[in-house]
Design a protein that fits this description.
about 40% strand, globular, Immunoglobulin-like, disordered C terminus
């Protein structure tokens, strides 16, 4: 993350946001409640504290400091769907949120108003418990809340005249590592024509989420791309290259990125089946994002180890630890 901006701001959101919940039905047909509002508030606090040197929240007061700006946030249009009847090993889930951020100066004049939308999709697996009914939902909700907060305060940085970060957005920056995701390493060397707008995060997800990549297992390379610029990016693509034995398993190695409005995030997935092996094999997948004008976001590298099928789930060296 870039250093906090030297401003004192007050961040306000409706108190009822923290009490917001979403309802769903688990695989046994029993109702469940998701405390999504609490995770959104936690993400907003974390993102704002990383954005400004001094932050006051809602009714907090500090007579020793005077905010020079006020940011009012409103989150609405919550929607959660879970297709527990889908014919997959994990149930597809979608969480949508819409938020508005308004920035005021110390006189109360409105300086900027921006609307953000998050539309996140994941496949949720069941907890390994005796009931076998509950889905592992908390990481998915947390990832969505962090994505929303990141968008809000990235736009706030731009509104305050700060330049978007030039380094790639990693899992630590986004605080949204999905279960089973591999760590990301930035490539050494700088592209001569760096993209002024696009940043991305790459993750490697294994099929059964046991953190061991095995021959014959389905894997996904997930890429979250965000437009940090002030203009819509209409033409861009994501590509993967790397170890030939791995690349040959992907039906395609280039995907078109839908148009991205300022502050908007899209995700793409490359899907493949790992080749069978009799002994552990090291491999790399290089991920890049390019605009039609030739600008390229800093590439990222996914390092992985492919184990023979049936490797014990206690062996977790295939997923490098997070730094």
């Amino acid at each position: 993350m870039p250093p906090p901006l030297p401003h004192t701001v007050k961040v306000e959101w409706p108190p009822l946001i923290a009490q917001q919940t979403l309802s769903y039905t688990d695989s046994c047909g029993l109702p469940g409640i998701i405390p999504v509002g609490r995770q959104v508030v936690d993400a907003l606090r974390e993102a704002s504290s990383r954005t400004f040197t001094t932050v006051l929240y809602n009714e907090e007061t500090d007579h020793t400091v005077t905010p020079n700006h006020t940011i009012k946030l409103d989150v609405r249009d919550w929607a959660f769907t879970l297709d527990k009847d889908a014919l997959y090993d994990r149930a597809p889930a979608i969480l949508r949120m819409t938020a508005t951020a308004r920035i005021y100066d110390e006189t109360g004049a409105l300086l900027r108003e921006t609307e953000f939308k998050v539309n996140r999709m994941e496949r949720l697996r069941l907890e390994r418990a005796s009931r076998n009914c509950d889905y592992i939902i908390d990481p998915f909700i947390q990832d969505t809340a962090v994505e929303l907060a990141s968008k809000l305060f990235l736009d706030t940085r731009i509104a305050f005249g700060d330049q978007p970060p030039s380094s790639p957005i990693t899992q630590d920056d986004m605080s949204g590592e999905s279960s089973g995701g591999s760590s990301v390493e930035s490539s050494h060397g700088t592209a001569p024509s760096a993209s002024p707008a696009l940043r991305f995060k790459a993750m490697l997800l294994d099929e059964n989420n046991n953190l061991v990549l095995e021959g014959g297992e389905h894997v996904r390379v997930r890429i979250d791309v965000v437009n940090t610029g002030s203009k819509t990016v209409h033409h861009a693509s994501a590509s993967i290259t790397g170890t030939p034995s791995i690349m040959g398993q992907f039906p395609t190695t280039t995907l078109t990125i839908p148009p991205l409005q300022p502050g908007q995030t899209k995700f793409l997935e490359f899907v493949a089946t790992l080749p069978p092996t009799n002994m552990p094999q090291q491999a790399e997948i290089h991920v890049s994002v390019t605009e039609s004008e030739g600008f390229t976001a800093p590439s990222q590298i996914l390092s992985l180890t492919i184990h023979p099928a049936g490797t014990s789930t206690d062996n977790r060296e295939s997923i490098p630890p997070r730094p």
